[in-house]
Amino acid sequence: MNLSLIxxxxxxxxxxxxxPEIQRPSGSTAAPAEDPAPAEDAAPQEAAPAEDAAPQEAxxxxxVVAPAEAPAELAPAPAEPEPVAxxxxxxxxxxxxxxxxxxxxxxxxxxxxxEADTAALRARHGIDVEPLERTEGPRxxxxxxxxxxxxxxxxxxxxxxxxxxxxxxxxxxGEDPRWSSxxxxxxxxxxxxxxxxxxxxxxFSRMTLGPKGGLIFSDGGSTWxxxxxxxxxxxxxxRWAPTIEFSSALTFKIGERxxxxxxxxxxxMTRGPLGFTADVGIGLGGFGAIVLGGQYDSPLARExxxxxxxxxxGGAFFIGFRGNILWGGPAAAAxxxxxxxxxxxxxx
Amino acid sequence: xxxxxxxxxxxxxxxxxxxxxxxxxxxLVDVSEADEEPDExxxxxxxxxxxxxxxxxxxxxxxxxVLSLGEGAFCFVEGTYCKASMILSADxxxxxxxxxxxxxxxxxxxxxxxxxxVVIRPSMIxxxxxxxxxxxxxxxxxxxxxxxxxxxxxxxxxxxxxxxxDDTTVFRVGAINQMWLSKRNHAAHLDFTLGGxxxxxxxxxxxxxxxxxxxxxxxxxxxxxxxxGDFLDRDTRVVLGFRGHGIAAGPIVAxxxxxxxxxxxx
Lengths: 348, 266
Hints:
The complex is a heterodimer of chains A (348) and B (266). Chain A is of the alpha+beta class and 348 residues long. Chain A contains seven helices and ten strands. Chain A has helices at residues 2-14, 30-33, 42-57, 66-69, 71-74, 115-125, 329-344, and strands at residues 152-166, 178-191, 193-199, 202-217, 223-234, 242-257, 267-269, 275-284, 288-297, 314-324. An eight-stranded antiparallel β-barrel of chain A has the order 1-2-4-5-6-8-9-10. By secondary structure, chain B is mainly beta. Chain B has one domain (65-262). Chain B is 12% helix and 43% strand. Chain B is elongated and about 70 Å long.
C-alpha cells in the first residue's frame, strides 16, 4: 500500500501540472492556445474534477492521495439540463396598423425578425436600405477639394468675361465709361468643415467655410488684392459631387499701369480704398465651377485728399470658370485671360 | 510515517515545478511603458477624444508631418507635431497709412509681403517623449514688403504743394511667439510678433527704423489671417491681411507674373 502510494505520488508529481487556473471574468482563449502540448493536458484536465471534488466529499483528515484512487467514483455526474423544446406561444396582443410582430414558431433560434421587419425599422428611422458606401480616398492629400476631407487647402484660378464700369465725377469732369474686359483671379482657399454628415463610420463634409485671399487682375494692369471667406456646399459624397460655392471678400487696389505716362506704361503700385467682391458658383467636385459675380471699388474722394490722388467709384460684373490649378486647365485659362486682357483691351 | 514522506515528496515536487504563467500574463504591463505617460495635464495636453468616425482623407495615425525630416524634428510646413519648422509665406494686406496730423492725410494703404523664418517648439524637444507636444513656439522671422506710396502736405499744410511717392519698401525682423490651440491636424495657432521695421518715412526720402507688431491666427503652416502694424516716426501703417504658405503662394505669384509678362505689363 505504501509502495503504491509513493508511486502514485511520484507519477502525479511528474505530471506537468500548472498552477491552478485563475478564474477571470472573460474566458480568454489565448492562454490555452499557447500551451505547447495540449494533448498532455488531457490527463490533468480529466483528473481535475476529481481533485476538485475531493475536498467536498472526503474529510480533511484523509490522505490527500485518496482522490487519485477512485477518480471515477468521485467524479460528479454531469447534470446538464434537458433542452426544453420551445413551443409557440400565440400572442393575444393585437398588432397596430403599420407594425408587424412575428413571433418565432419555434423552428429555430434568433433572429426573431425577418427582412420585412428590418425594412420597416429602416423606413421608420429613415435609414437607407443600401447606403452609398465610398471607399476611395481623396486625391493629392486633399489639395483638391473633396467631401471626404476635413480641413483642406486649395489654390483656385478664375478666368472670366467682365463688364466693367467707372463712375464719373460730381464736378462734371470725366465721363461714365463702361467696357468689356477680362478677369483673372488666383485665390488660396482654406476649407474648414462647418457641417458634416456620417455614413457608416466615415465623416463627410457637407458644408465648408473658411478664409481665402489672393490677387485679381483685369485690363490696364489693374491689380487688386482680396481677402474674405469662401463657402462650399456639397450635394453628395463623391469626388464629382455637385457643389454650390459662394465667396465674398474685401478688395483693395494694389497696382495698375500708369495711363498718364504714355511713354512708359509700366505697372506700378496704386492705392485705393476698400471695396468688395462676391460671387456664386455651381461646381462639379473639386474640379471647378461656373461662377457669376461682381465687384465694387469705393471712391477715394475725401475733402483733405488732393484732387490728383482722388479716385472714382467703379465696378464690374463677371461670369467665368473657376477651378483648381492642379488640374492645369484652369490655371492656363486664367493666365491666358490675363495676358489677352492686357493686350487687347483699351482701358477708357 | 510513510504517508508523511509521500506528502513531503509531493509538496517538494510541486514546489519545484516551473511556473511561467506570470510572465505570459497579458494583463501585466511593463513598467518601462510608464515613460510614455504624459507628465502634464490640462486642456492643452490631453489627447483628442477618441472617435469612431473619421474622414477618408484623414492622415493615418502615426503618419509623419508633411514635408518633414527626422520624424518631425524639422518641417518645411509647420505642423502640429513639428519640433522645429521653417516659415516661408507670402501675404497681401490692406489698411490705412496714418501720418501725423500735420504731415499729411490718412490714405489707403496696401502691400504684398514675402516672409521667412524659423520656429521651434521648446517644450517638445524631449528625446524620450516620442509623442510629446507643446503649445508654445518661439522663433525669428523676417519679411520684405512693397506697399503703396505716401501723400504728404507741403509746407504749412498746403494741399496745393502736396507730395507723394510711388511705393514704399519695408524690411522687418522680429521675434515670433506662437500658441498652438489643439493637437489636431492643421491646428489653429495664435502668432504674436514683435520687432523692428525699416522703411521710407512718408515722402521725406529718409529711411528709418520703427516698431513692428503683429498678431495673427494660422491653420497649421498653410496660412491664416493677421493684423499688422509698422510704427515709424510720424508714419503709422496698420494692415489686415491674408497669408499663405510658399507652396500655395508660389504658384499664385508665378501665374500672376506670367500673365503680366505675357500681357506686356512688366
